[in-house]
Amino acid sequence: MNIKSLLLGSAAALIAVSGARAADAVTVAEPEPAEYVKICDVYGAGYFYIPGTETCLRIGGYVRYDIGLGDVGSFDGSKAFDVRSGKEQSNWSKNARFTLKTWTGQETELGTLKTYTETRFNFGNKNDYAITTSDAFNRAHNKGVSLNFAWIQLGGLRVGKDESAFDTFIGYAGNVIQDTLVPYGNFDTNVVQYYFDAGNGFSAVVSLEEGSGKETIDSYVPHVVGGVKYTQGWGDIVGVVAYDSNYEEWAGKIRGDFNVTSELSLFAMFGYGSDKHLLDDAGNFVDVHGRGFYKQWGGHWAFWAGGTYKFNEKTAFNLQVSGDQDKNYGVAANVAYTVVPGLTVTAEVDYDHFGHFDDGTPFGNWTNADKKNSVGGLLRFQRDF
């Protein structure tokens, strides 16, 4: 065998093996192109397009931890019983909360289609004690889940679970934690609302509401809230009026917010409502508070005032004072400090004065109660995301 024959034989063998391997080769499919999440900046920061849709979604919330102490019976303190002696005593109030929020937005031929949900999960002992047995304790426990918001809005029409427009449209009572030392209205309700923006700073709302708890509507007639607002660079003026269909009573609030300087902002709110002194079929007085779903304060009138002063970008001082016709008064003051973006620590001191009570006689003879002054405080850690 010469060298030429050897080379030709080797080439033939290589061609045969290559052909065999080619016949056994596996074809790998081309990878699908990656579909990356796209940022949606139409509705603000944090939104992104849900893949394959024109809907923008934002997911957020907060984690919060509250530590409270104060007089038993105040908004801040907690009641406990000594595990050995059973003696009633004051205790820390603690509450940890995780809140999950979602927002969606989409443009349609009928306007912007939006949704908002907020769900809260709580673990703690605050305001959850019982005294029905001798071994009752204010034990820390999982306090359940609450659906605080779940509404749909198309253009100006909103339906679903919200807080009453009697509070949301006019604004809450300052940047303090305990803003209801003198209450200014009820909150949770299902709604059918319409918001109207007239331009030039004028807006309005009409809200049909179901109420909640014992103040849920008792017929087909809803509670009704209406409000108007005028907003400019200096602040705004807002008024709301509400009709309580259960008691056929009215309540209203008017409020002014003022941007005095870039550091200082002030607000003042005044409420007035008709009384309801109810008798049952036997002529017995059945409403000992004189309050409905909207007029939660005592007597006809009440006030709330306060403001915020920003020392710098991280530190702010907040104050609220409040009172009503029945000589219930409250003062709340705090300092809020942003440790790093997204983490705020707030230290608050609260004073609560209880004035009058209704003795339960027909037509509500308002008499002086033993005046009680309660002092308490809260330390709050909150991480927003």
From TrEMBL:
Keywords: Cell outer membrane, Ion transport, Membrane, Porin, Signal, Transmembrane, Transmembrane beta strand, Transport. InterPro entries: Porin_alphabac. The keyword Transmembrane applies. Residues 1-22 form the signal peptide. Pfam families: Porin_2. It is a multi-pass membrane protein. It is found in: Cell outer membrane. Belongs to the alphaproteobacteria porin family. Forms passive diffusion pores that allow small molecular weight hydrophilic materials across the outer membrane. Consists of 16-stranded beta-barrel sheets, with large surface-exposed loops, that form a transmembrane pore at the center of each barrel. The pore is partially ocluded by a peptide loop that folds into the pore lumen. This is Porin. The lineage of its organism: Bacteria, Pseudomonadati, Pseudomonadota, Alphaproteobacteria, Hyphomicrobiales.
